[in-house]
Amino acid sequence: MKILVINAGSSSCKYQLLEMDTRSVLCSGLAERIGQEGGRLTHKIAPDTDKEEKLVREAFFPTHVEAMELVIALLTDADKGVIKDKSEIYAIGHRVLHGGEAVSDPVLVNERVKQIVEECAVLGPLHNPANLMGIEVAEKLFPGVPNVAVFDTEFGMGMPKEAFMYALPYELYEELRIRRYGFHGTSHKYIANATAEFLGKPLSELRSITMHLGNGSSMSCVKNGKCFDTSMGLTPLEGLVMGTRCGTIDPAIVPFVMEKKGLSPSEADTLMNKKSGLLGLCGYTDMRDVHAQVDKGNERAELALKLLVRSIKKTLGSYFFLLEGNVDALVFTAGIGENDDIVRAMVCEGLEAFGIKLNKEENSTRKPGARIITTPDSKIPVIIIPTNEELQIALATVEVLKK
Fold first, then answer.
1. In its UniProt record, which GO terms are filed under biological process (predicted)?
2. Strand positions, DSSP E, 9-82
3. Which residues contact 244 (CB under 8 A, 6 or more apart)?
4. Which of 72, 110, 280, 320 fits 276 for a cystine, CB–CB 3.0-4.6 Å?
5. d(Cα 107, Cα 138) in Å, to the nearest integer?
């Protein structure tokens, strides 16, 4: 059974074609600069294997339709294709940011679901319109093939009410559904399942803390296999210090800066989402650049690194207490979590009092797959587990169709 996974952005489109019988990736790719000059499609056959082959096509894509038409041509190419005909694709799974409270579980797309995605664009103005566009393009190019929407907010919707509510007038929740939703849910759900499997423990008994650290970062507190708390809120802005997002700040800063700098609400939103975080502190968003600047004595880069780690440790501590100290594992995942041994070491520094002992050699060594980076006598294991959001979306798609 072949499942195509699509993650459509406003000017880009990521995709993977998976063979679900073996859970292998047949191909993956990224179309960039859609609607702009200098469009490019990078297509990988058998990615992340010793047989990987990369094809690059440069072209102008007026819309997502033209980009996906080229994807189909590459999928079915006589020499390089991985399928003979697009009819081999059983279903298409779509990453969708926000379904509000109306829909969060993976669902077969129909007109009502598309309407909900459109209505929730006010909560996800950058993502929801693009996600909806990806669905409509798939409907046009793959007529008759079922489309399944998998929502980024799904995992966080399992939180208890005292975790997702804000201490604002209750009417704001009733009228505008202002609450904590949580994001990176597909990743957090995948990691919860993978952690339980790695530990040989039933998911229903898992108590863990996941650190999804990348350009966008979030953490989840998992109790009995479900999300008990999460760091992101109404939008992906709340929580940890991120590449360009400020994370949690005193909310009074927003009107203060708007008044002093003469900013509109849209400009203030851009300031916090796209000009803050590591970028705002030191001018860099890639942690490799931040570390290089720290080595050169750049004090602002060092400050940015310390703020990032501090935000992680503060959240880690709060989740540790929410779980009453009964924690099966701490898990690092995503770009920084999987690859940055310096950040991991800084996060784990000082945790010996809780019986967490980092194996420095194991932490600094790069290896594929899931692995423990603490010593054998550590009371709580710290684990690196590579995330796989596309596989989680494909699995969810199959489950929806089975129902």
1. acetate metabolic process
2. 13-19, 24-32, 40-45, 53-58
3. 215, 273, 274, 275, 276, 277, 278, 279, 280, 285
4. 280
5. 16
Say if CB 364 and CB 377 are below 8 A apart: no
State the average pLDDT over residues 146-175.
95
Catalytic residue among 50, 152, 229, 269: 152
The third-level CATH classification (topology) of the domain covering 200-389 is Nucleotidyltransferase; domain 5 (3.30.420)
User: d(Cα 255, Cα 262) in Å, to the nearest integer?
Assistant: 10
pLDDT, one tens digit per residue, over 326-358 is 999 999 999 999 999 999 999 999 999 899 999
Contacts of 247 (CB under 8 A, 6+ apart): 237, 238, 239, 240, 241, 277, 311
Q: Band of the pLDDT at 36, cuts 50, 70, 90? A: confident
Neighbours of 351 (CB within 10 A): 20
Dist CA 9 CA 36 (whole Å): 14
- Phi/psi of residue 111, nearest 5 degrees: -65, -35
Q: Is 286 a catalytic residue?
A: no
* Of 8-12, 79-83, 205-209, 359-363, minimum mean pLDDT range: 8-12
Instruction: Provide mean pLDDT across the span 265-292.
Output: 94
Q: Residue 237 is encoded by which pair of tokens?
A: 């802005």
Closest CA to 270 of 294, 235, 308, 309: 235
Lookup: tokens for 160: 């208890």
CATH superfamily of domain region 2-151: ATPase, nucleotide binding domain (3.30.420.40)
Mean pLDDT of the 204-218 span? 95
Considering Cα of 160, then 165, then 167, then 173, what sign does the dihedral take?
A: negative
Rounded CA separation 62/136 (Å): 16
Q: How confident is the model at residue 399 (pLDDT cuts 50, 70, 90)?
A: very high
